[in-house]
Amino acid sequence: MRLGGKIPLAWKNLTEHKLRLVASVAGIAFATTLMFMENGFRKSILDSMVNIIERIDGQVVLVSRTLYTLSVPFSFPMERVVQARGVEGVAWSGPMYTVTRSSYWRNPETGDEERICVVGYAPEDDLLDVPELKAGRHLWSRPNTAMADDRSRVERFGAFEPGQVSELAGKRFEVVGTFSLGINVQTNGNLVVSDRNMMSAFPELDGPSLMDRKAHVGVIRTEPGADPRRVRDALAEALPPDVRALTLDEFIARERDFWDKVAPIGTVFYIGVVMGMIVGSVICYQVLYSDISDRLPQFATLKAMGHSNLALYRVVLGQALYLALIGYAAGLIVSHFLFQWVHRMTGLPMDVARNNPYAILLLTVLMCLGAGAYAARRLISADPAQLFA
Amino acid sequence: MLGMRNPPLAWRNVAHGGRRSIAAISGAAFSLVMVLLQLGFLQAVRITGANNFEVLDFDVLLTSSRFEQFYSPGFMPLERLRQAEGVATVESAAPLYAAFALWRCPPNPLDDPPDDDGPRPGALARWLAGADAAPRPLQRRQLYVMGFDLDRPPFLPPILDSIEANKARLRVPNRILLNAESHPDFGWQVRDRYHDWELEETAVEVVGGFEMLRGFAADSTVLCSADDFVRICGYGSRETTNLGLLKARPGTVDETVAALRAALPDDVLVSSREEVLAREVDHWVNQTSTGKLFAVGVLVAMMVAAVVVYQVLSNDVREHLPEYATLRAMGYSTLRLAGILVFQALLYMLISFVVAVAISAAVYQATETLAGIPMVMTRGNLALTFALAIVVGAVTGGLTVNRLRLAAPADLF
Prior knowledge:
The complex is a heterodimer.
Chain A: H1 9-16, H2 18-49, E1 60-64, E2 76-77, H3 79-84, E3 90-99, E4 104-106, E5 113-115, E6 117-120, H4 131-135, H5 137-140, E7 145-149, H6 154-157, E8 165-168, E9 171-179, E10 190-193, H7 195-201, E11 214-215, E12 217-222, H8 228-238, E13 243-247, H9 248-262, H10 264-293, H11 296-304, H12 309-346, H13 357-381
Parallel strand pairs in A: 6-10, 7-9
Antiparallel strand pairs in A: 1-12, 1-13, 2-11, 3-6, 3-12, 4-5, 7-10, 8-9
Chain B: H1 9-15, H2 19-54, E1 60-64, E2 76-77, H3 79-85, E3 90-105, H4 123-129, E4 139-148, H5 159-170, E5 175-179, E6 198-199, E7 202-203, E8 205-210, E9 221-225, H6 226-232, E10 240-241, E11 243-248, H7 253-263, E12 268-272, H8 273-287, H9 289-319, H10 321-329, H11 334-371, H12 379-406
Parallel strand pairs in B: 4-9, 5-8
Antiparallel strand pairs in B: 1-11, 1-12, 2-10, 3-4, 3-11, 5-9, 6-7
Helix pairs in contact in B: 1-11, 2-8, 2-9, 2-11, 2-12, 8-9, 9-12, 11-12
């Protein structure tokens, strides 16, 4: 008779003591939660840094040669954006402006001026793929109007709502609508304004002529079927070296790369992820090891009854697998609520689904199977009678 | 002591547990490492937040009412400092000009810089290669510049000593001091071989260094004279400044703050040194996403540690229940067995704690090297972790005693 064929032995072992099952599952669930949390924090910081540029509706971008992160905007002459239109493969190009350091919004409730990130582009260009911005185009084309990010920190800016009147950079501005983008570790809120309003609020970006305006990102849409990398190369060839052409994916990767590898915050969370993985794995191992060791006498009995090593092994590993899966599922649920809570608290994008859930599942299962196999070693090598010792 | 009577049962249970004890201790120890690590991160946020103002010499701080934190101080007319000097208890008032500016980061290697288009090496790769060896292209990066009156440097030693040592040299225009603790990309290590330094659009000369922690917001800092600062950073004149550092007569700080609040218009914010430090720490810990994430990290790590330690100990005790039943049948009192159980739990936690501190020390060191943030194992954090370990240990031990008491000796087999 195949062991566990008629009676699901691994499952019965696991569910025999309900309390013990709960303790084991809790151990593994929390180990999984730890891995999810560290991973999630790192990911959310990196994701949040690119939440604006990820929405750029274009395939290739132009940025200043010196730009290393968009949080420290470097500008280049608007002329480059226009020059790009003559390059093969380019269907359309338009400028985007950002001000992050010197832009203040007056909180209408408290009267305090708070720093806010301002993005500007011509409303008809639809540079950002955000439905509310596209739909409200006619509203924020008007002078001295702005669209506000409803995910901005309420405690800083108060709740943004249409019709609200306050000051941006000391000039009267009206909020005409809201959209949802999200904040990051550098900014507490976002405003989107038209290019004209951008120039009136921040005259330092304006120049003697349109061509001299200081643009921060040149968004380029390629002709249908054109390879963005080809177009990028063609732009690099055609334009002076004060600008750098990047495909949108490269731009996003560069931005993440800076926060991940150069800024200390990325490194800190990276260490958190590595430690979370190690600690989570050790915990899984610990739980499984004691769970299996406790049952060695029963296994010895089965061995004495003539069941093969392989059959016993299968039961032990089956038990490990069940425990891993139940623990993981419980951990996933705990993490989900933890993430929601952190999202509400910090406004950072936190999503379990974007956090390598499969990698963590794999790691949990592998650790549990490894621990089970290690615990079962004694079972294989020993005489049945010794196992009762 | 109860558990140590002859034979010392609790100790023997731990010492002769073999692999099982090792598994239990490693589980508990690693959970505690996680707690210590998260506490260390949070502490680093506190330290770097407070440090910026701790190195400055002042009793009372004047800032713009727009003041957010050290790196975003807002602007204030110099006139407010002159007005403040009119208050009787103010001994002196020194302006500090502070702003982010662009710094030309030397490439590496100096004579053959790599292309800027490739991916950057990660912190780990850089660490393995050594700080000087990782290739990097020529870049302009932001750092924090502070300008001050050379005759009244508002700093405390050791930074003040570095300034005094280089004072004569700093009087020549466009000479600056660079933070020796800068991120390696900013070139402090190659200061003798590189000469094309640039701050914003101005060629400058690095005449010396000073030591100041770098935080999460700025990778490096530069000190220069106020005249250089306003020219290089485009302030136009010295009449607009960022921070006003006041010294009050000893014992008159509260009085001075009240007098200044009454005397000055409401475009400035008057705060005492304690208020400034408290507000700065509060900003970095409670207002920024970074601080909040680390705080959540501490909380979750503690919960995980508690659950795991409970799991470890209750498993271990259950394992030994038959032995305890024998002892009970032999006439040992429940109280005495309980003592052994709790003592054993505490022994586990003690060993785990020691192991955890040893591992954490190594992880702290690695973090400090890799991320360049100060990782300090404070007594408070050690005590907190220790208390967590002991409380969870004792509670778990106690909970298991309950099972022991309810069961008749024979049942336990």
